[in-house]
Design brief:
This protein is mostly beta strands and 303 residues long. It is built from three helices and 22 strands. 10% of the residues lie in helices and 22% in strands. Strand 1 (51-54) and strand 2 (57-61) form a beta hairpin. It is elongated and about 70 Å long.
Amino acid sequence: MRKIIALIACLSFLCVTLAGCGGENPENSRPVETPAPSPENEGGGDDDDPFIWDGDRITGLSRTGEQATEFVIPARCTEIADFVFSANRWVKRIVFEGADTALHENVFMECSSLESIALPAGLAEIPQKAFFHCIELKSVELPESVALIGDYAFTECRALGSVTLPPALERIGIYAFENCDAIQDLSFPASLQTIGESAFSDCDSLENLIFPDGLVEIEASAFKHCDKLKTLKLPETFRSIGKSAFDKCEKLETVHLPASVSEIDSLAFTVYHPYDVYVKEGSWADTSFDTFNYAANMNRIRY
């Protein structure tokens, strides 16, 4: 009898267990929902764009752009804001598709790997410190439309050996090419009127300067410590030389001062070795000759 009762109990338990397994739990059967993609991430477009935009203005670099080595600036870009590429260690080459993209100050400052750049064809100005301390920049061809090279624009671009100055250029700002050790020759356009303070100071390789008619003023220290400069011939339109403009130019041999010169700072030529200075007889440079410091080292030749 006990065996029969035990068997009935086992069968009852088994039936209950099977019934439970066959039932459906409403909570566990509900499907997992996948959130719909947000509009900004749809298609992955923003992830591929190296730039951060504000309308048609580039204001920064995206994560994609931060370590890119080459950039093509699209034609839709109207301007690039301050500091966008500043201190970027990766970028080597930049090309502009459009002609009218404007640049702001410090835009490529201290891009330590930048080697070449093709600037917008319609650019009117190289802004202040645009390429400051771009130590690998080897050459730059400035668009014909550029009228101003801003202060410190190419300071300490030590690899910069070739510079083509545009025909519309009117002013070169202060310290614009200071410590550009590789520049050897410079031909200035007839449109140029002023070379700013220390614009080419400490350009150790600079040997030849060509000044066409049009230049009016060379400001203080403009060619200071240009150790290889040998000859200086100023155009007939020229009027003024600032303090220390040719200070310690150790290889200077010949200076030609036109009759149009009306102001030369007494310390403009702080040169400690003998050299020839050509002056128009009876001109201001001739009559003021003895007021120059270190005049004893100048061999005056009247013409």
